[in-house]
Amino acid sequence: MTIDYKVLDTIAKQEGTSFYLFYPEIFVKNLNDFSKLLATYYKNSKVAYAYKANYMPILGQYLKQNECWGEVVSGMEYDIARIFLAGEHLIFNGPCKTALEMNRALEDGAVLNLDSFYELDLLRSLLDHHKNISVGLRVSFDIGTGSSRFGFNYENGEFMRAVSSLLDMGKVKLTSIHSHFTTRERSLDLFERRVNGMLDVYDAIPCKEQIQHLNIGGGFFGPISEEAKTNFTVVPPSFEDYASLIGNAFNKRFGEDGPTLFVEPGVSMIANAMDFVVQVLDSREVKGRRILTVDGSVNNLFPTGSKYNPDFKIICAEKRERIRSDIAGYTCMEHDILMADIDIAAAPGDFIVFHNRGAYSNVYKPPFIKAAPAIVGIDGEIFSRRQTFEDVIATYAGSNG
User: Fold this and answer.
1) By three-state DSSP, how is residue 294 classified?
2) 106-152: per-residue pLDDT in tens?
3) Which architecture, in CATH terms, is 5-22+272-393?
4) In a 3-state reduction of DSSP, which class is residue 17?
5) Do 270 and 286 form a contact (C-beta atoms < 8 A)?
6) Sheet strands (E) in 194-264
7) Fold for domain 24-271?
8) N or C: which end of the chain has fewer CB within 10 A?
9) pLDDT tens by residue, 14-68
10) Which residues of the chain are in CATH 2.40.37.10 domains?
């Protein structure tokens, strides 16, 4: 269905004057494109979608249907993923697991990657509950972007001490090595350093025969418009670029019989599968400055606080003249400016469609001033209803008067 004014106006009358549009077919295409390209270069590879980017439960159904895994970093995300995915198709990362959460993951057959010596101590408390245990370790190493606070550091010997601690437990096998680095760059040069660093770590451990999985994490660019590419200092690589670099490196090192290569893309799978739609509610002039107020905020558009020029499209009720304007949000905060000083042909009643809003948007946005908007499909299907007053106050004491 074409996104025109009539379609958006119909949805707005049912769901409110702001909402997310979700396109499942784009999410599935991203999963399959990356999975098939990786397997072309290194057959024994798997995509594990990072739930933290967007943990809509329905995504698990698409993961299951397309034989992809899920990656989670909390007990809450684990519960969401388990709605559709079996435990043996989950990777449990994150720095703050509880003993109960770790025990459940072990019982379910999930890949459990430990992040700290604190979690190693928790594992010791679980030894009597299991005959044999298989776990992984998250490792950090120098890729030229500064130190990470996550995982066991390789250069200072922390990682090898963790390996020794695991092996000393007797019934525990080290079957997985995991790494992940958060950077804005996401370049091929950066991934080459990540892959080479992981292979160096693998070569250094004394129990290589136990290793079943090598996981290089996420942080990939996904499909992106030419206009959006101007926000970055490097030319965003394609899925083909990433798959070729990573898969060829693993193939060169292991041939066809090496450990399973895991990648954990989140943003690159879901970002372009969702738009955020707002209706223009008001137009005013303040000292020669035209301000259009919309039913959305910077918390929807830039939930992580990283501002850049968003891709957007204006859907008008009628033809408009372009006027220099600021786009202001619904909150009472002066800084709630979605876009400043732009030429835009819009007036009250029109819609602004912000593209690539699937990552960290609906899951990161707090219930500040207004509750969360609905997530709908272009044909009207509801993936998440608009939150209500009751939803927001449900956990507060004294909410019943």
Assistant:
1) strand
2) 999 999 999 999 999 999 999 999 999 999 999 999 998 877 889 99
3) Beta Barrel (2.40)
4) coil
5) no
6) 213-215, 260-263
7) TIM Barrel (3.20.20)
8) C
9) 999 999 999 999 999 999 999 999 999 999 999 999 999 999 999 999 999 999 9
10) 5-22+272-393
